[in-house]
Design a protein that fits this description.
Layout (H helix, E strand, L loop, with lengths): L1 H16 L5 H37 L10 H48 L13 H9 L18 H11 L3 H8 L1 H16 L1
């Protein structure tokens, strides 16, 4: 087996080294490997059958009941029943062990799946890192340009905002009294008419 294994490993290594093997050659080698594996599998099956037959011949020899008296046959039957009882007990014990192991495997698989789903994420700390530091960590020494992100922001004039607030904050009662009644609506109409022209 060692020589066969080393021979097949050498073939695989040669196949990996030579990447310029034609497709038909690769297909032929694959088919040969599959045929060889099939032969070895058939040999293993035959060997198992032979071992099974040998075991059965050793454990259960052929019975010759010809020329036995009735009492000898009864003792033989009692011995066979005793052997059957022992075998049944062993079979029952083995089945119980297999059942126990399969349940244990099933429970362990469930625990593994539960552990995968219940992964606790650690509490992360917020770390303030500048854009320059991030680029330096990603690019290393290649990073020379500094990024000042605040320089690219629009500037807002504070004076304009203060003027708009001053206009909006006026005495609303005067405005309501002026606009009340038909005169106020006429003023609104005149203002709108003047704006459109």
């Amino acid at each position: 087996m060692v020589t066969k294994m080393s021979y097949s490993v050498k073939n695989i290594i040669l196949l990996q080294r030579k990447s310029k093997i034609s497709a038909s050659r690769k297909l032929m080698l694959k088919s040969l490997m599959v045929a060889k594996a099939k032969e070895e599998l058939e040999q293993e099956i035959e060997e198992k059958e032979e071992q099974k037959a040998k075991y059965l011949e050793e454990k259960s020899p052929h019975l010759q009941t010809s020329g036995m008296s009735l009492s000898e046959l009864q003792t033989l039957c009692q011995e066979l029943h005793a052997k059957i009882d022992v075998v049944d007990e062993e079979r029952y014990d083995i089945e119980a062990k297999v059942l126990h192991n399969s349940r244990e495997i099933k429970d362990l698989n469930i625990k593994v799946l539960d552990l995968r789903g219940k992964f606790k994420r650690p509490n992360l700390r917020r770390v303030r890192v500048s854009a320059d530091a991030i680029l330096h960590s990603l690019l290393g020494s290649k990073h020379k340009v500094s990024m000042d992100l605040r320089a690219n922001l629009k500037s807002v004039k504070k004076e304009d905002v203060e003027k708009e607030k001053a206009v909006e904050v006026s005495d609303w009662r005067k405005n309501v009294e002026a606009m009340s009644g038909m005169e106020g609506r006429k003023k609104m109409f005149d203002v709108e008419k003047g704006a459109n022209q």
